[in-house]
Design a protein that fits this description.
By secondary structure, the chain is an alpha+beta fold. Helices cover 28% and strands 28% of the residues. The chain is built from eight helices and 18 strands. Helix 1 links the parallel strand 1 and strand 2. The chain is globular and about 55 Å long. The two termini are 13 Å apart. This is DAGKc domain-containing protein.
Length: 279
């Protein structure tokens, strides 16, 4: 088993990684530990890759695996700021329970990643107020207070709220909006859900668009998510499913994917043809 960790992650703990490695070895695995803050290199002898980190680390490692078309099963040990994919798979945080689960030989679960520009994302992406807030997040503050750094960045955004028209095109459909989200899985920013029927094993993604994104529109939308309302049932929200989507805007707005800024509009997104396997 190749254990890939990100030493620059704010929650990185050598002691915790050591406990995980010991637990995996106790269950019969041979562990190769690799620290990587950049493009990971996969060991030729690895028959299983375990990522220790948040969604950004998972996106980087799983994206590299998708580009190399490796058929090695993946697992995610919960760490980092937010762990949407780990939450999706219900991986336990206890090292011994995690080791027993991933080495039990259970059938792998397919995950269809979404190609976005030159990379991939695995849980969610979006353009609008939240991506502008993510762009403002202070990394030192994030290492100190974790996910609260996103709230601090959003509070700053309230004073500099801007609205821009975004044009979405998908399989003959054209829609203009001021903010949109793409959900590949159930979870967004923690326990919230943008699309309650979205699943990582489904070769489709869900698009949630806000035709207008004034402060009150966005507040109403977020309040609905907090209350557990399906976005498709909220007033003033457009939703649909597809396999491909293009988004353009004259403003060149930032794109967030799995909690990180990955580029700016315009962009094209496509569901991958070959799924990765998570165990």
């Amino acid at each position: 088993m190749q254990l890939i960790t990100n030493p620059t992650s704010g929650s990185y703990s050598r002691a915790r990684v050591a406990r995980l490695a010991q637990s995996l070895e106790a269950e019969g695995a041979t562990v190769l530990h690799c620290e990587s803050a950049g493009e990971p290199r996969f060991a030729a002898t690895a028959t299983h890759v375990c990522v220790v980190g948040g969604d950004g680390t998972v996106r980087r490692v799983a994206g590299a695996m998708a580009r190399q078309e490796r058929a090695v099963p993946l697992s995610i040990y919960p760490s980092g700021t937010i762990n949407l994919l780990a939450r999706e798979a219900e991986y336990p945080a206890d090292p011994r329970a995690f080791a027993r689960l991933v080495l039990a030989g259970r059938a792998g679960r397919p995950h269809y990643p979404v190609a976005l520009g030159d990379g991939f994302f695995f849980s969610c992406a979006g353009v609008g107020p939240d991506s502008c807030a993510v762009e403002r997040v202070s990394l030192p503050l994030k290492r100190w207070i974790g996910r609260l750094a996103y709230g601090a960045a959003f509070c700053q955004l309230l004073w500099h709220w801007s609205r821009h028209t975004i044009r979405l095109e998908s399989e003959g459909r054209v829609l203009e909006c001021e903010a949109f989200y793409v959900a590949k899985g159930r979870y967004y920013a923690g326990a919230w859900s943008l699309a309650q029927s979205a699943r990582v094993h489904d070769p489709l993604f869900h698009v949630i668009a806000l035709p207008t994104a004034r402060r009150r529109d966005y507040a109403r939308f977020v309040f609905g998510l907090i209350c557990g309302r399906d976005a498709s049932r909220q007033a003033g929200v457009e939703t649909f499913t597809c396999r491909a989507l293009s988004a353009t805007s004259e403003a060149g707005l930032p794109i967030q994917a799995d909690g990180d800024i990955v580029g700016r509009l315009p962009v094209t997104m496509n569901v991958g043809e070959v799924p990765l396997t998570f165990c």
